[in-house]
Amino acid sequence: MSINEAFEAIRKEINKLEPEARCILLNRISIEYFGIDRRSNEEKLREEKYLKNNM
């Protein structure tokens, strides 16, 4: 599988998620792989609440 094919497969799976879950996943990828956390305190609280209610 080429990089482009792998990226497309991952992108399709991410796009299947509801918007809130997609946002959380992309933020976590940003933090994990790039060490960049651009979330506000409000976004962090919203993420915590979402995960608590849906996990």
Give a written overview of the molecule:
With 55 residues, this protein is mainly α. Helix content is 78%, strand content 0%. It has helices at residues 3-15, 19-34, 41-54. It is flat and about 40 Å long.
Q: Notable features of this structure?
A:
mainly alpha; single chain
Q: How would you summarize what this structure contains?
A:
With 55 residues, the protein is an all-alpha fold.
Q: Give start-end ranges of low-pLDDT stretches.
A: none
Percentage of residues in strands? under 5%
Question: What percent of residues adopt helix (DSSP H or I)?
Answer: over 70%
SSE sequence, one letter per element? HHH
N-to-C CA distance: 32 Å
Q: Strand count, sense and closure of the main sheet?
A: none
Mean of residue pLDDT values: 92
Task: Sum up the overall morphology in one term.
Answer: flat
As a whole number of angstroms, the C-alpha radius of gyration is: 13 Å
* Alpha plus pi helix count: 3
Number of strands: 0
Structural class call reads mainly alpha
List the helices and strands and how they pair.
Blueprint: H1 3-15, H2 19-34, H3 41-54
